[in-house]
Every structure is written in structure tokens, then in C-alpha cells.
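Per reviewer request, we include the raw input and output of the structure prediction for the construct analysed in the revised manuscript.
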Amino acid sequence: MKKQTIWILTILMAIAFLGLLCIQIFYMRNIVSIRYEQFSQGVRQAIVATSVHLEQDETRHYLEDDVRQIESSSIISQYMGEAVPRVGGIKYSFTTSTGIEGDLTIKGDANAISKIQSSEDRGPKAHYRTMQDAYRNKYLYQQGILDDVILNIISKASTRPITDRADSAVVRKYLRQELDTLGLKMPFEYALVNHSGLILYKSAGYVPGQTDGDAMFAQTLFPNDAFGARNYLKVYFPTKKDYIFKSISFMVPAFAFTLILLIIFVYTIIVAFRQKKLTEMKNDFINNMTHEFKTPISSISLAAQMLNDASVRKSPEMMQKVSTVITDETKRLRFQVEKVLQMSMFDRQKASLRIEEVDANVIIYNVVNTFKLKVEQYGGSLTANLDAMDAIVNVDEMHFTNVIFNLLDNAVKYRSDERPLNLTVTTSDQSDENLKITIADNGIGIRKDDLKKIFEKFYRVSTGNRHDVKGFGLGLAYVHKLINDMGGSISVESEYNSGTKFIIILPLSKN
């Protein structure tokens, strides 16, 4: 797949995922807004209903008080010898125009009824007029009672203590009933506050000065009282946010799954680009490998043919030249094999190692002697200080040799043009359990920003204006992987324009 195609698919999928996330977020915000509005309306309705209940209770209180007074006056009148109205009734029989017959009984005061009965002899008009007068008098009587109650409420209600008019237990009962009726079965705290802000009473969990405006609601109690005598009921819902977000909890899994899909998509794209880069590297390597292998093989083949010539075998100088050609071309082949190993290392999770006991000092000595000629070609020097008394370690000899070779080769690649290259390889006894190997140079060094990434696969340190350093960014990643797989560790210390030091720690064989 072309890189451009991958980028197009990546952009389209990213737009699709971002659009889906935006829609979900917008939908969730709308749901939360609607839930807040519904909650606020329900709470206001419950508080208003509570206020109405308290006003009705007060009206009932004065009605009952007046009824008791009327009953008391009736009893007093009875004991004083006043006539008590007798209850009686008048029964009428009637027939409608359609032929339906029935009876009508009028109950009431016996004296009034007798007047109505006596009026029957005076004609229907007098009879109905008498009935109208009786009901009018009764209406006026009841209206007078209600007027007295209203006057009592206006004149006396505001003088009653507000704690009697709105008892704490009664307020809690009405609030609980109204909230439960509206489906708001959640805890609440409340307080009664006067017009000056003084708390007259409060529930146990009510904290004065609560600043969460969204969860605090207030309602004027008995709004017909004088302004200076008004009191306010404040209700606070500590779990309002939990209640709101619990109602949209069904959206959380969908949102989480979308994020998971987005993360998987991003990871897949990253892996796709890495695999594409690795594929391109392999293709480039395969294209070059034929030429790289053909040249040294041809040279070695030609040298072998020359050895078959008797005259060449008799000349020491010719034998030396043929031997040098074979040695150099063998090194070239070995270097290409190392590249193949490095490429194949990252196709496997775990390297296939042939672990055996070896003397690290001997291996390093051989690598240094072989590599010294290359360093001297650039006017540099390579020094080996193999001071470790115990250097027997369990490693794969071939891979360990490649590790030392790669570190030395990096030092040559990133040498400084301002001073001669100076390379030092040191072995020392870190403790009774570990061997310490140090490879130090005086090259261009590594910036601090790059130090944390140099062991990452495909990562290459910027070399400024230098363009002669080529590679795939696998050398140090290969070194790091091999050292870890062999049970050791590697670290780096560097200062820009001063040099770099690689430190390898390997466990000794006896451990």
C-alpha cells in the first residue's frame, strides 16, 4: 500500500472518529442540560407545593378555631335557655312532563320548614320565594363565617411564630412527599431563613454558606405576609450531580468504547507506518545485498584462483597481497552478515542465542586488534585497558562480538572533525557479581533530548550538517536488545561536543 493511500485513510478515519466523539459529547451535554432543567422544575414544583400545603394548614387551623368557638357558643346558648333550632324536613312528590315521578325532601331548620309549609297554602310563588330567602340567609351566614376567618388570618397569622406556622417536621414531611411523587427520591437538606438571612432552624446536614448555586433552591413561605416579616425555605441537594450523571450513565460505555477504538486505530496506524518503513528498509537491503555480496565473493574467488598458480605461491609478496585481499573481503562479507542479523533480530520477540562461557577480555582484545586499523585510517587511536580480573561471562560469542564492533563503529562514524579520534575500551570488576565494560570516545557527543531515545528502533541522532553518516537506526537498538537478552544492561553518558561513554554491565559466569 502506498504511503499516500495510508495517509488518506488515516485522515478519513481520524475525521470520522473525531466527528463521532463530537456528536457523543454534544448529545451528552444536551442530555445533562435537559436533566438539570427537569430536576430544577421538579424541585421548584415540590417546594411551591410545600408552601401551599403550609398555607392550607394555616387556613384549616383558623377554620377549626372558629368552628370550636361556634360550638362553644351553641352550648352556652343551650344552657342559657335559648331555643335551639330543630332539624326537620319537607317531602315533595313531583311528576315531570315526560311522566317520571319522584320525591324531593328538603332538610333544614324546623322553624324555617314550618314557615315554608305554612307558605304552601299561599301559593307556589310564595313557596319558592321563601325557599330562596332561606338559602340566601344560609349563604350569607356561611360567608360571614369565612369573612371572619379571613380577617383572623390577616390580623393574627403574621403574629404567630413562624416555627409554629411552618414546623420543621411538617416541612420535611411535605417535601419528602412531593419529591417522591415527582420521582426525585434523593436526600436533601433544608433550612428556614428570615428576611435578614438568620437561620431559624435547619436540618442536621445543612451547612450555612453552601455556594453550590445549582443545588440550592429557595421559596418564600406565606408570600402575603409583610415584606419585613417574610421567611424563606432553602433546600439543598448534596447528591444532585450524582443524580444527574447517573441518569446518563448509559452513555459512558459507548463513549469509552469509542475511545478504545480510537486508541486501537492510532496504534494500528503507527504499526502500519513502522512496518512500511521496515519493509522499505528490507527491500533496499535486498536490492543492495546482491551487489554487496557479489563483489567480495568475486574477489575471494579470484584470489583462490591465483593461489592455484604455482608462481604466485612461490612469491611471498603475492601471497601477502592475496591473503590481504581474502581477509578484507571476508570482513566485508562479515559486515553484511551482521546487517542481516540486525534486520532479522527485530522480526523475533526473543533472539535465538547460543549462550556459553567466554572470556570477555579475549573477545574484546580480538575486536580491538581487528578494528584498530580502521581507527588509524582516520588518524585516531584505540586503546584497550582490560583490567578486569574476572571476565568470564555467559554470552553468545558472535552477538557479543557484534555488540562491541557496533559500538566502536558508531564512535568512528560520529567522530569530531576538530580533533583526532581517541577511543578507549576498558573492562573492570564492578563487584564480585558483575563485569563492567566501558567504551568511551571524544566525538561529537549526543544532546540531552536524544539520550532517552537512542536505543529505540529506527531512531537516528541528528548530526547537524553531516551527511556522510548512513544507516537504518538499528545499530544501538540491536545492541540494547542483545545485552538485555543476555541478562545485562547498557547505559550511556554523553555531553554534546565532548564525547560519549557507553557502559555495559554483565553478570559473571559464577553467578
